[in-house]
Design goal:
The structure is a single chain. With about 525 residues, the protein is mainly α. The protein has 24 helices and 7 strands. The chain has a 5-stranded parallel beta sheet, with helices on both faces. It starts with a helix and ends with a strand.
Length: about 525
């Protein structure tokens, strides 16, 4: 089993890097190497690993949905009104219905089995769309109208919706003949008639669970129950996975929606903590991505893929051109998007990969008739749409979108974080230094200690330097002095040194200092384009 894990990680990594150097998404190389080392060729993967594939896929989907939630921007979503919400339901739904109807003609499926296939194919790929949209945000393409955020939100919501319907259909098709349910008043409903009520209940409870667990994470992590970012990630990742697997015990909420909602609410409750956790999930995804796509390649039945190649391509093309295009048109109706921005949805919102890899094999494992065809079409959708979508997104963004100003607080932190601790001569300086030290330890970051000295008080400077040296002994740091207006000096240094966050106190130790420091922190909050963390005495 250990040898199989090494084959998957090493071969998957190098195959992904090779594919990337050739201009294709890394996941294509991972899928191909999975086919090569799987049971149909080299057979380097042990049966025990293949038996655990479903659990490993579940972990990967949990990670990517958490990343999607942590990448959302509430302000841009509010700016878009109902566009993002419509993008979350209409394109995926119309594509799924068109594919369900086509599968009845092409593969002789019944409608519900066809809709099961539609849920698999209609879902969008966080593995391609999330990094692609975050990259556009970091470059400024479409940010003025929040287009990357609308696509991110729409793809995340559509995945949650289709995963929810998929799981309900899978249970229903796997339990054909199950008894009807009698409600109060003698009303009897079949399992199929109960589906809409189950969907609404799972959405409402999923959002509530995400909200509550985001609050719990902030309470645990900010109150320093953990000591570093690794421990933060253990708690955050464990919580996200718990929300998904607990649905086996309490199947009345959507675990996938709860995970995405938890990431979104974390940003609202504690933005610095959310950014640190986002970086940790980026690292987790590096491993999960390899495992997910290599195992997908290992489970593809090549003979079935060859048999359905032409009808599968026809199904995918018509589903995209007819179904998804209709959904895109209805989603952007009445919006302020130009026709070029609407056209960008074609490359920006078409890629299939992660969800297809995670659930494509489940109908076959559940014994659903036509499960091998569903798995083959899921693989075909990845091999065709993922490379085209990833390539076209970056190529057509400069041609179809307008470039706007990048908000540094809404993009992921790259490199080593740097925290600016703005201190004065009050006892509150100790609390500011301790807060900066805690943030730096959690993220393996650095600290710049800034004192605006307009009095030339050498004794005060020496004392502050001594305190900083003592509290930051195990952290890379430097001490700076500056003259001039205090708020302006803090903001100028923060921008010049490209710090991650500014840490500043809110109150001094005497009444007149309360007023002065209160006004300084408020001025910095209003002036700074960089996130500001205030510390109370």
């Amino acid at each position: 089993m250990l040898a199989s894990a090494l084959w998957i990680l090493f071969m998957g990594f190098f195959a992904g890097q090779l594919a990337q150097r050739l201009g294709a998404p890394p996941l294509i190389g991972m899928i191909l190497v999975g086919i090569a080392i799987g049971p149909q060729f080299a057979n380097f993967i042990s049966p025990e690993v293949l038996d655990a594939a479903d659990d490993l896929r579940l972990v990967a989907v949990t990670i990517i949905l958490m990343k999607a939630g942590l990448g959302l921007d509430r302000e841009k979503l509010a700016q878009q009104g109902t566009v993002a919400l419509r993008l979350g339901f209409l394109p995926a739904s119309t594509e799924a219905i068109v594919i369900a109807l086509l599968s009845m003609l092409l593969f002789n499926f019944d409608f519900l089995t066809g809709l099961l296939l539609g849920c698999v194919v209609g879902a969008e790929s966080p593995a391609v769309i999330v990094p692609g949209m975050l990259r556009l945000k970091s470059l400024g393409w479409g940010v003025a109208k929040g287009i990357p955020d609308a696509i991110l939100t729409g793809s995340a919501l559509s995945d949650v919706l289709l995963l929810l319907i998929f799981s309900l259909l899978l249970n229903f098709l796997g339990q054909q003949g199950s008894e009807a349910v009698t409600l109060f008043g003698g009303i009897t409903l079949s399992p199929l008639q109960l589906l809409p009520f189950q969907i609404i209940l799972e959405i409402v409870l999923g959002l509530a669970a995400g909200f509550l667990f985001a609050r719990l994470l902030v309470l645990v992590l900010v109150k320093q129950w953990t000591r570093n970012v690794v421990q933060d990630m253990i708690i955050a990742a464990g919580t996200a996975l718990f929300l998904v697997i607990f649905t086996a015990v309490f199947p009345y909420y959507s675990g996938y929606l709860a995970v995405m909602a938890m990431g979104f609410f974390l940003i609202e409750f504690d933005a610095p903590l959310a950014r640190l956790i986002r970086g940790g999930f980026d690292a987790l995804w590096t491993i999960a991505e390899i495992v997910l796509f290599v195992l997908l390649g290992a489970t593809i039945q090549l003979q079935v893929l060859g048999n359905i190649l032409l009808p599968g391509l026809l199904l995918l093309t018509l589903g995209l051109v007819v179904g998804r295009s209709l959904g895109w048109y209805l989603s952007t109706l009445g919006s302020n998007w130009t026709w070029q921005e609407k056209v960008f949805l074609l490359p920006g919102n078409m890629a299939k990969a992660t969800v297809q890899a995670a659930i494509g094999a489940l109908p076959l494992a559940a014994g659903i008739e036509g499960g091998e065809i569903i798995l083959a079409i899921a693989a075909l959708s990845i091999l065709t749409t993922a490379p085209i979508g990833a390539w076209a997104t970056q190529v057509f963004a400069p041609k179809l979108l307008e470039k706007g100003e990048v908000d540094p607080t809404k993009v992921a932190v790259t490199g080593r974080p740097v925290f600016l601790a703005a201190v004065d001569t009050s006892p509150l300086a100790i609390q500011v230094l301790r807060k900066a030290a805690d943030l730096a330890r959690r993220s393996n970051g650095e600290v710049i200690v800034l004192y605006v000295d307009n009095l030339g008080d050498k004794h005060a400077v020496d004392e502050l330097q001594s305190q900083a040296k003592q509290l930051l002994a195990d952290i890379r740091h430097e001490f700076l002095t500056q003259t001039g207006a205090v708020p302006e000096a803090i903001v100028q240094v923060a921008q010049a040194r490209q710090v991650t966050d500014v840490v500043i106190g809110k109150r001094g130790h005497r009444t007149w200092e309360d007023v002065i420091l209160g006004s300084v922190s408020q001025a910095v909050l209003e002036m700074s384009p960089i996130p500001v963390i205030t510390v109370d005495s």
